[in-house]
RNA sequence: CGCGGGGUGGAGCAGUGGUAGCUCGCAAGGCUCAUAACCUUGAGGCCGGUGGUUCGAGUCCACCCCCCGCAA
């Protein structure tokens, strides 16, 4: 029996479990992998493979890395010659033009890291944390020409735990993609799964995350909001503030909502148990920093930070944007 | 060679030419009903490496190794 021919489009780590599961499927053959071009990255600006390329190199399947998909006849012809049945697209990073989407017999599927139609766009995982949601999940849709608006084939919900951060949710949702992509794709091809249009009236969109979104504004943000931002933005872009002319990142924190500390002031608070904590005043409540990193140094927990910088905190307790 | 910060006892930091310190941890002892609290004492550093300047260098110079922030 002929296996279904699938072309996989993906770039980031999020796409790896999905690709892996397609490769393991008995009824599917991944005959090409498309990823973003290698970019200069890291401390020395070295050209680095995308996570998908790094993974794919182990399998021996060729990786295509077109600079652009628009007006790229060579690439279009190449895809046509592969005679694909289906595209699977996961965090690829580029919009795939309509004419390319028409190449495969069954169109293209996409795994999205939110419960569509909520959080269409590029940063659904961060957005659900920023909003303080208590549940999220993945949605597998059939791609149409509009971004994240295609009809839904499958939704899997999971709860967001208080302890979840971008990293934990990212891993959970990526794994779900891997768990469900192959069966959903096959059911879709068999037509045992029918696409259901999204309720566009309930759609919401992710704001694009900018570097500057990580800058903490102690005056206008509440402890609760900052806590959610830390959960969403760690490790990128990270939540930071300025202290003594240096960038101070808060990597992990909790909220002390009944505290009334001076806004933007850091202080060492001793609990009755004798435990010392770092409290920072916000618009409402205090943020209790548990893990932090100062520019040029490694990350450290609050206790370690107090041991080394305790005196300095008392000298210059004010933080600035 | 993209820009920049840093490598000092187990951890985090101070110390910029002249006998190596602080907070924490650790060990022993004390106080206490008790303690992550408090008091005493103690162990533990060839100050990343190599070479150089100097009467004398964590402390100045050169090169090398390693860690990290920005950037992507």
User: Which H/E pattern describes the elements?
Assistant: EHEEEHEHEHEHEEHHEEEEEEH
Q: Please provide the count of β strands.
A: 15
Structural class estimated from helices and strands: alpha/beta
Q: What count of helical segments does DSSP give?
A: 8
For the biggest sheet, the summary is: 7 strands, mixed
Averaged pLDDT: 94
Radius of gyration: 23 Å
What fraction of residues sit in β-strands? 25-35%
Report, as a whole number of angstroms, the end-to-end distance: 63 Å
Principal-axis shape: elongated
Low-confidence stretches: none
| Strand order across the largest sheet | 5-2-1-6-7-8-9
Helix content: 25-40%
Comma- or semicolon-separated keywords:
RNA-binding, seven-stranded mixed beta sheet, 8 helices, six-stranded antiparallel beta sheet, elongated, alpha/beta
Give the SSE map.
Layout: E1 4-10, H1 16-24, E2 28-34, E3 39-41, E4 46-48, H2 51-56, E5 63-64, H3 73-82, E6 86-90, H4 98-101, E7 108-112, H5 124-130, E8 135-142, E9 152-159, H6 166-189, H7 223-233, E10 239-243, E11 246-256, E12 266-270, E13 276-281, E14 286-294, E15 299-301, H8 302-315
Parallel strand pairs: 1-2, 1-6, 2-5, 6-7
Antiparallel strand pairs: 3-4, 7-8, 8-9, 10-11, 11-14, 12-13, 13-14, 14-15
The chain binds one RNA strand of 72 nucleotides through residues 39-45, 48, 211, 246-247, 249, 273-275, 293-300, 303-312.
Describe the structure.
It is a single chain. With 321 residues, the protein is α/β, with parallel strands linked by helices. Helices cover 26% and strands 27% of the residues. It contains eight helices and 15 strands. It has helices at residues 16-24, 51-56, 73-82, 98-101, 124-130, 166-189, 223-233, 302-315; strands at residues 4-10, 28-34, 39-41, 46-48, 63-64, 86-90, 108-112, 135-142, 152-159, 239-243, 246-256, 266-270, 276-281, 286-294, 299-301. Strands 5-2-1-6-7-8-9 form a seven-stranded mixed β-sheet. Strands 10, 11, 12, 13, 14 and 15 form a six-stranded antiparallel β-sheet that branches. Strands 3-4 form a two-stranded antiparallel ribbon. α1 packs parallel to α6. The longest helix is centred in the middle third of the chain and has 24 residues, at 166-189. The radius of gyration is 23 Å and the shape is elongated. The chain starts with a strand and ends in a 6-residue tail after the last helix. The chain binds one RNA strand of 72 nucleotides through β3, β11 and α8.
